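Q: Predict the bound structure with D-glutamic acid.
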Amino acid sequence: MRIGFFDSGIGGITVLHQALRILPHEDYLFYADTLNVPYGEKAKEEVKQYIFDAVSFIAEQQVKALVIACNTATSVAIRELREKYDFPILGIEPAVKPAVQKSEIHRKKVLVLATSLTLNEEKFHLLVKRLDQHDIVESLALPGLVEFAERFDFDEHRVISYLKRALAVFDLTQYGTVVLGCTHFPYFTNTLRKLLPEDVDIISGSAGTAANLKRILEANQQINSGNGDIVYFKSGVKVEDPETLENYNKLLLKLDEM
Ligand code: DGL
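A: Predicted complex:
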């Protein structure tokens, strides 16, 4: 059986990329809800409905585990999804814990970049409340990066000018760690690096989620001997057009360079 990966769009490929690294012999089903992306600026109940529809479709394809490769979807729906389905469902959340640990040592702050919905959710507030004892965590929504990624627009000049404007209010020298709390953001890691002081770490939760997936498959004795085959779906329709498949492949190669 395949492992399902779900995101509102192409962001989840950044998590799939990490899974392919450590689980190269699994076969995957990647579902992007491209008809409804972006989730991050929409109302919670609307987004929840999209997620339940998508996961119902994925479940019909028979997956042995599902990764909700989207911070926004994880924060609004993971608990109810786990109640509904009996295969393992993994999520991803902003990597606040390692960020706080790293930054505290150097007496620096943490900047969490995510969608508005993720940042407004109680799940995120509770996470920060539990970990941020010295009040060093700040956050910023960057919906523009989701839009750039969905348009496959990685033009550095345009992205840099958007980021410069968005980051203008922050004194970046005060920060030790930037958390990529949206799975669309790792495509812009190299661009972000150009704007941040050299000693700022940029981290995301994707490697941790992939490691959890491996651990769960091993514990359930469900490791495969496949060949890393990936089938892609866009909002319930199998992707067969060679150009789109080629673009997805290019994203995986782009991530090799990050
Ligand atoms: N990739 C998603 C995340 O990790 C959300 C992007 C969006 O649909 O707004 O939060």
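A: Strands lie at 2-7, 28-32, 63-68, 89-90, 109-114, 137-141, 175-180, 201-204, 230-234, 237-238.
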